[in-house]
Amino acid sequence: MPMAQLPGKRMIPVHIDESIYREIKVYCAETDQYFQDTIKAEVAEFEQNLLKLVTIIKDMKRKAEQERLRQEEVQRISTENPMPVIGHEVEPIPAQ
Fold first, then answer.
1. pLDDT of residue 87
2. Could you please report the per-residue DSSP string of 53-92?
3. What is the pLDDT of residue 1?
4. Residue 53's Cα: distance from chain center in Å?
5. How far apart are CA 23 and CA 16, in angstroms?
6. Whether the Cβ atoms of residue 62 and residue 51 lie closer than 8 Å to each other
7. pLDDT score, position 16
8. How many angstroms separate the first and last alpha carbons of the chain?
């Protein structure tokens, strides 16, 4: 049975080499199977790889946000608690 539009899922085009597609279609015709049923395991593995990618992306975003918050905190602390610099004042050299 052909795969119907499933709730919560979105159909997207996935481009594959023509020769690969043709080989799978020939196999489907020879075994009297639907294309979707033939590639079902590979699609499931592909979805798992996409889930891993989403996890990596979310982790990168979380780390970037943590770093941004850390930088803001460092800036806030630096602004609230300026360190006195002891030494001789230096006159800037005039531009010529």
1. 76
2. HHHHHHHHHHHHHHHHHHHHHHHHHHHHSPPP--S---PP
3. 43
4. 5
5. 12
6. no
7. 93
8. 83
